[in-house]
């Protein structure tokens, strides 16, 4: 059942924000920047990737704040500006919309809270707030310390299959973006450049091959990494099992 729309729009000159008024009734555009949370001393931690991801708390809720950064060669001389082709085409708007779809489908992923787009001429910069998966750790961190219970590998595969069966394409499906919480529940995160597609074997298979490459990459990079090729077969069993 599709939930009623809770999204509100705030627009001021070159600033455009969308927020969920149930999750953040006291919304301010400043909340989409780390300075706000640092000033209020409500930063719970950070993670480093292409940029810094900020973990923040507000009204007993835990959120993740992420600024959109460019990668690859272009990111070396243009770190965070994108060509503006319409509000709905911005990276933040597209990810927010997809996270809302995942929430409505009941899939295990972060929920959208708010986003902002700041235009400057023909370009824009953007930020996203989403819910934080409580007491969860990514597979890289877990497997760097200990092996997984073998029963969890099919569960990871089955969870990915749930997304794929709804046509959810994850642009960067790797083991940094698969989390397990303390109840061993599986979540997928970071849906930047993801989308809902027609269900088809071609992109699904490419998604899984990307995931397999990420396991092999970390195996070669991290001493004592607790992953073997037979674990992939267990994951595949869960992925291919009919539900």
UniProtKB/TrEMBL annotation:
Record-annotated active site: 172
Annotated GO MF terms: ATP binding; kinase activity; phosphotransferase activity, alcohol group as acceptor
InterPro entries reported in the protein's UniProt record: KDO_kinase, Kinase-like_dom_sf
GO BP annotation list: lipopolysaccharide core region biosynthetic process
Top EC class of this enzyme: transferase
Transmembrane segments: none
Keywords: ATP-binding, Cell inner membrane, Cell membrane, Kinase, Lipopolysaccharide biosynthesis, Membrane, Nucleotide-binding, Transferase
Pathway assigned to this chain's UniProt record: Bacterial outer membrane biogenesis; LPS core biosynthesis
One cellular-component annotation, GO: plasma membrane
Function (record text): Catalyzes the ATP-dependent phosphorylation of the 3-deoxy-D-manno-octulosonic acid (Kdo) residue in Kdo-lipid IV(A) at the 4-OH position.
UniProt name for this protein: 3-deoxy-D-manno-octulosonic acid kinase
Source species: Thalassomonas viridans
High-level lineage: Bacteria, Pseudomonadati, Pseudomonadota, Gammaproteobacteria, Alteromonadales
């Amino acid at each position: 059942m599709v939930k009623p729309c809770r999204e509100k729009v705030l627009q001021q000159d070159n600033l455009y924000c969308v927020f969920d008024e149930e999750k953040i009734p006291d919304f301010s555009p400043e909340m989409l920047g780390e300075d706000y949370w640092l000033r209020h001393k409500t930063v719970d931690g950070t993670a480093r990737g292409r940029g810094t991801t900020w973990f923040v708390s507000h009204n007993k809720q835990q959120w993740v704040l992420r600024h959109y950064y460019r990668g690859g060669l272009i990111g070396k001389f243009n770190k965070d500006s994108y060509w503006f082709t319409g509000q709905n085409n911005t990276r933040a708007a597209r990810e927010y919309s997809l996270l809302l779809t995942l929430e409505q489908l009941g899939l295990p992923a972060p929920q959208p809270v708010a986003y902002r787009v700041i235009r400057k001429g023909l370009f824009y910069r953007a930020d996203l707030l989403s819910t934080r998966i409580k007491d969860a750790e990514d597979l890289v961190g877990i497997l760097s310390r200990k092996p997984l219970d073998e029963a969890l590998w099919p569960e990871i595969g089955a969870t990915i299959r749930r997304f794929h069966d709804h046509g959810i394409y994850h642009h960067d499906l790797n083991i940094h973006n698969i989390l397990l919480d303390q109840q061993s529940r599986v979540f997928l995160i970071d849906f930047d450049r993801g989308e809902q597609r027609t269900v088809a074997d071609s992109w699904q298979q490419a998604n899984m091959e990307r995931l397999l490459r990420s396991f092999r990459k970390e195996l070669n990079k991290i001493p004592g990494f607790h992953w073997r090729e037979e674990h992939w077969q267990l994951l595949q069993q869960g992925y291919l099992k009919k539900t």
